[in-house]
Amino acid sequence: MFFPRLLAGAATWSLFLFTTVLARGRAIVTNECPEPIYLWSVGGKISPQYTVAPSTSYSETFTHDPVSGGIAIKISPVDGGIFKPNVSQTIFAYNLDGEKVWYDMSDIFGDGFAGRTMTLKPSEPTCPEIVWGAGKQPAGSTVRLCGADGNLELTFCTGKCLPSWYPCGNNAPGDPRVCCTHCIGSHHCVAAP
């Protein structure tokens, strides 16, 4: 009689462990910009480059990296950007800590998405979001904490338009782009002044 109960208990425990692993949230990067963005998931190793086309997303399940501890999703407006000198990167970092996840955003080498709203929004409504209204890092720390069973979604070009034109930050040499941020109505962009 003891052996069947032991097997039933083991099966229940296995199911619990399996569902616990499946309950992990995801880090999501959504591109609402009119051009592709490029990203790499960086921990102890650098992933291949992922191209996130307009109106698409990239996602990965929260992972604890055994070497670095956390993951830095590095995003650039330039193809191959993290391997080119002085090309800006926006970093969406997270660190899985048991049933919690620490998260933040930062920029290095300039503001490559300046003039474009970026929003890092947790799926859990009680967790704080991070908003960069003009694509620039606000003053102060943006490190936040949330449960690891929900998703964190970083959206580029949230709302698509801002009230004025703005250079696209520190463009790569020879990249003359100007971000479309001047609107008539909700999303109709007009030529730069």
UniProtKB/TrEMBL annotation:
InterPro entries: CetA-like. The keyword Signal applies. Keywords: Signal. It holds the Pfam family Bys1. Residues 1-23 form the signal peptide. This is BYS1 domain protein. It comes from Exserohilum turcicum (strain 28A) (Northern leaf blight fungus).
